[in-house]
Amino acid sequence: MAAMTDGERRDRMVIEQIERRGVCDPRVLRALREVPRELFVKRRDESRAFDDGALPIDCDQTISQPYIVALMSAALELSGDERVLEIGAGSGYQTAVLSRLAGEVIAIERHDRLTRSAAERLNQLGCANVTIGTGDGMRGDPERAPFDRILIAAATAECPEPLWDQLAEGGILVGPFGPASGQILKTLHKRDGKRHERSITGCRFVPLIAGLPDPPLPS
Ligand code: SAH
């Protein structure tokens, strides 16, 4: 029998890991089928690109589990014209998924090395509606605010206030809230300026860290 193509492997990943666990937004499922996850993992992990879990990327960070990417994307209830702020772009995989679901994506990553490689991949994939930059995402992007949707892809005890302030009225924010040992993925809806919270599932993300990493010492 011929070996499966990457496209067939992605189809299987979506059916077994995502649809079967109850994510049914057809646009989200299509985006997960189409974005080549294999381009976002380290070359040595290419054969594990469709595994049901997170994988290591540079700077001691991780590319998120496909199911979690699908769950967070679905939680944002995107119809196609929203402006989305993403904090912690990492490999850029979630960014590429969001770029297919929203009107515009502004992504912030604190490790410049990750920003650069994510930007390269997103460019290669023709994600023209994405702006990605290096910075401290805990401050958000006041100049481009407000945002219809905000996705926080790193663990934080509380929602950083600037991010809540930059969420538009009627907007939705999703992120993992809780201690480093384990968090609850939650959505925060802003209605009449008030916060309406909903828990989705338990999860474990790398921490959201204030400020930028120290530059490497000259050798
Ligand atoms: N969803 C991404 C993985 C995110 S991992 C993917 O699928 O590839 C979380 C990322 O958040 C890491 O890359 C980490 O460097 C970044 N991060 C942590 N604190 C941050 C901050 N304050 N501002 C921006 N990015 C941050």
The CATH superfamily turns out to be: Vaccinia Virus protein VP39
Number of helical segments with 4 or more residues: 6
List the helices and strands in order.
HHEEHEHEHEEHEEE
Count up the domains.
1
User: Percent range for helical residues?
Assistant: 25-40%
Low-confidence blocks of residues:
none
Biggest sheet, spatial arrangement of strands: 5-4-3-6-7-8-9
Rg (C-alpha, Å):
17 Å
In the CATH hierarchy, the third-tier topology is known as: Rossmann fold
CATH class reads: Alpha Beta
Strand content: 25-35%
* Ends apart, CA distance between termini: 52 Å
Hetero groups bound? S-adenosyl-L-homocysteine
Number of strands: 9
What's the architecture in CATH terms? 3-Layer(aba) Sandwich
Concise structural overview:
By secondary structure, the protein is α/β, with parallel strands linked by helices. The protein has helices at residues 6-19, 26-34, 66-75, 93-101, 112-124, 161-165; strands at 55-57, 61-63, 83-87, 104-109, 130-134, 147-152, 167-177, 183-191, 194-203.
Could you walk me through the main structural features you see in this protein, from its secondary elements to its overall organization?
The chain is an alpha/beta fold and 219 residues long. It has one domain (6-203): Rossmann fold, CATH 3.40.50. It contains six helices and nine strands. It has helices spanning 6-19, 26-34, 66-75, 93-101, 112-124, 161-165, and strands spanning 55-57, 61-63, 83-87, 104-109, 130-134, 147-152, 167-177, 183-191, 194-203. The chain has a seven-stranded mixed β-sheet with strand order 5-4-3-6-7-8-9. Strand 4 (104-109), helix 5 and strand 5 (130-134) form a beta-alpha-beta unit. The longest helix has 14 residues, at 6-19. The chain starts with 5 loop residues before the first helix and ends in a 16-residue tail after the last strand. 43% of the residues are buried.
